[in-house]
């Protein structure tokens, strides 16, 4: 999702279709109330820190260094999601334009939560437990798969051969007893706190 914000006028200029759909009827409220509306959507425990960092960044913007934040909020349907929010500054004549990129990283967060959990089930009763072990390298590969990387891109990021990356993907598909990568990510989510 992409949103353009004109810093000097303190005004949201544009939100792409995905962002407008994400906010639903509340998109007009964002344009009217600005950041105050956005901050009201953020989790109470995170909002003060996020608000301070965004305002500090917009007050003294660095065109060469983007700011990246990660926090939780509710979408227009009341679903709690985790977003990665990246802000880049572009100078156009006498104006500073803040380009806001929002990525829904909820699934990534769930996968990482599972691997941080000692029990493999997030410590909650009634959840399925992993019947097989996954190596540290397979965990890295699964995380990158969930982020949409191809085997070739995974190989490059992990400094392994393409053949090894493909083998890890095949092993994960076998271990999770699924047919394809999409099903692999879905099945892996069964072992997380949702």
Report on this structure.
- The chain has 194 residues and is an alpha+beta fold.
- It folds into two domains: 2-104, Beta-Lactamase; 107-189, Arc Repressor Mutant, subunit A, CATH 1.10.10.10.
- Helices cover 46% and strands 21% of the residues.
- The protein is built from nine helices and five strands.
- A five-stranded antiparallel β-sheet has the order 2-1-5-4-3, sandwiched between helices.
- A hairpin with a 4-residue loop joins strand 1 (2-6) and strand 2.
- Helix 2 crosses helix 3 and helix 5 (106-116) packs antiparallel against helix 6 (136-146).
- Residues 118-127 have low confidence and may be disordered.
Short key terms for the protein model shown above:
five-stranded antiparallel sheet, 9 helices, Beta-Lactamase, alpha+beta, 2 domains
Q: Any chance you could write out the topology, listing elements then pairs?
A:
Layout: E1 2-6, E2 11-15, H1 17-23, H2 27-33, H3 35-41, H4 44-59, E3 67-74, E4 80-92, E5 95-104, H5 106-116, H6 136-146, H7 151-158, H8 162-175, H9 181-189
Antiparallel strand pairs: 1-2, 1-5, 3-4, 4-5
Helix pairs in contact: 2-3, 5-6, 6-8, 7-8
Radius of gyration: 20 Å
Largest sheet: 5 strands, antiparallel
Shape field: elongated
Mean pLDDT: 83
Q: Tell me the helix content.
A: 40-55%
Major sheet: arrangement of strands: 2-1-5-4-3
From N to C, what is the helix and strand string?
A: EEHHHHEEEHHHHH
The CATH topology annotation of the largest domain reads as: Beta-Lactamase
What low-confidence regions span 5 or more consecutive residues with pLDDT below 50?
118-127
State the domain count: 2
Please state the second-level CATH architecture of the largest domain: 2-Layer Sandwich
**What oligomeric state do the depicted chains represent?**
single chain
User: What is the CATH domain class of the largest domain?
Assistant: Alpha Beta
Number of strands: 5
- End-to-end gap: 23 Å
Task: Find the CATH superfamily of the largest domain.
Answer: PAS domain
Structural class: alpha+beta
Range of strand content: 15-25%
Number of helices: 9
């Amino acid at each position: 999702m992409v949103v353009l914000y004109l810093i000097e006028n303190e005004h949201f200029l544009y939100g792409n279709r995905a962002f407008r759909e994400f906010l639903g009827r509340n998109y007009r409220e964002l344009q009217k109330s600005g950041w105050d509306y956005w901050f009201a959507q953020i989790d109470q425990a995170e909002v003060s820190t996020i608000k301070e960092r965004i305002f500090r960044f917009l007050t003294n913007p660095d065109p060469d260094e983007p700011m990246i934040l990660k926090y939780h909020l509710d979408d227009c349907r009341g679903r709690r999601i985790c977003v990665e929010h990246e802000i880049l500054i572009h100078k156009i004549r006498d104006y500073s334009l803040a380009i806001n990129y929002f990525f829904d990283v909820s699934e990534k967060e769930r996968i990482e939560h599972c691997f941080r959990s000692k029990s493999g089930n997030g410590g909650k009763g009634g959840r399925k437990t992993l019947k097989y072990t996954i190596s540290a390298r397979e965990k890295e590969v699964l995380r990158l798969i969930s982020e949409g990387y191809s085997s070739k891109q995974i190989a490059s990021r992990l400094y392994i051969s393409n053949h090894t990356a493909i083998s890890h993907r095949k092993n994960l598909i076998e271990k999770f007893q699924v047919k394809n990568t999409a099903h692999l990510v879905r099945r892996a989510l069964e072992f997380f706190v949702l």
